[in-house]
Amino acid sequence: MCTRAWAPALCALVAAAAAAAASLLPLDAERLHASVGGFAVMNCHLDFPFGNEIPYHLQWDKDGDTIFSWYSGAGTARVADRWGGRVRRVLDGRLGLGRGSINVSAVRETDAGLYRCRVTFPNRTPPARNNGTFYYLDVDGGNLIVTPPMNVTVLEGERAELECLPKSPEAVVEWFREGTPLGELPELALRADRPANGSLVLRRAASGDPGEYECRVRDPTGATQSASAFLDVQYKAKVVYAPKERYLPYGKPASLDCHFSANPPLTNLRWEKDGFLFDPYNVPGVFYSRNGSLLFNQVDESHEGEYSCTPYNALGSEGASPGVRVRVQRPPALGARPQP
């Protein structure tokens, strides 16, 4: 207790210490606010000895438990199970953030708490410097959604689940894809299940399913809240269309396209002509375009034949296209002049 015998400055220090102890927060903790389904960016600058970068270990804790751990030079960070896919380093230097910063996405009510950034140097004594930042995250109250959906990536044909757990068991959960109610998308609705917990489950994800999915929750009082996430469906590169015949104009430039779809993006595309590998680099006047199409500078009869293309991405290929018969078409010519 502060008495008159104590110096005023000492009284102020005791009061500040008592307030900090009562709140259990570090004096330098910065408060952040986020809503359920939103995101929170937490800044953390790195202070290297003498300004020279050396090997370091970046660790983020929440309420004393490690949620993110990364060693410089390592390829993949270790993320705690409940945080998988929701905590990532922020690497865009244009934002003016430190290299230890993270982004917490798809915020949940249980994410509220005290966060600490810690940077240590394993090969240096002492291993720690003045690195470290404290944040206290407040998740805005009045939320109807306990667990919002988060971004999901699956392979074509796999099961995909987007969570949306309402706070009230009596709440009504509706799902939308790109703003359209799921009930108005019959092909998608046929493959979808709606468990009692409000989630959306696609039994077999298809290549046409990617997009933004939004859940809208309405409680018995009529209050509403929504949250959204993106579904990404990856698949082998595949041909989606191939004409049976293609006519190219003699003496003119022309192109022969390979109509494909790929996610992840295309990495290679192979052409065959009459059953043999067709390499434009070995054929004068024929080139590859950026999208893999064949470009002919000046079409002639040597370009006739049956062509097929095979697209590839990081997952492989679904196979070659059906053969496309290329024919060279000359302009009409006058065979005989009429007699006067």
TrEMBL record:
UniProt keyword Hydrolase, yes or no? no
UniProt key word Signal: yes
Q: PROSITE patterns recorded for this chain?
A: IG_LIKE
Q: Which domain of life is it from?
A: Eukaryota
Query: InterPro entries recorded for this chain?
Result: Cell_Adh-Cytoskel_Orgn (IPR050958), Ig-like_dom (IPR007110), Ig-like_dom_sf (IPR036179), Ig-like_fold (IPR013783), Ig_I-set (IPR013098), Ig_sub (IPR003599), Ig_sub2 (IPR003598)
- Give the matching CDD domains: Ig (cd00096)
Q: Gene3D superfamilies in the record, alphabetically? A: Immunoglobulins
| One Pfam family per UniProt | I-set
Residue ranges annotated as coiled coil are: none
Q: Where is the signal peptide?
A: 1-21
Q: Name one GO biological process term.
A: homophilic cell adhesion via plasma membrane adhesion molecules
What keywords appear on the UniProt entry? Disulfide bond, Immunoglobulin domain, Signal
Question: Where does the record place the region Disordered?
Answer: 319-340
- In this chain the Ig-like domain maps to 8-120, 142-232, 237-327
A single GO cellular-component term on record: plasma membrane
> Which protein is depicted?
Ig-like domain-containing protein
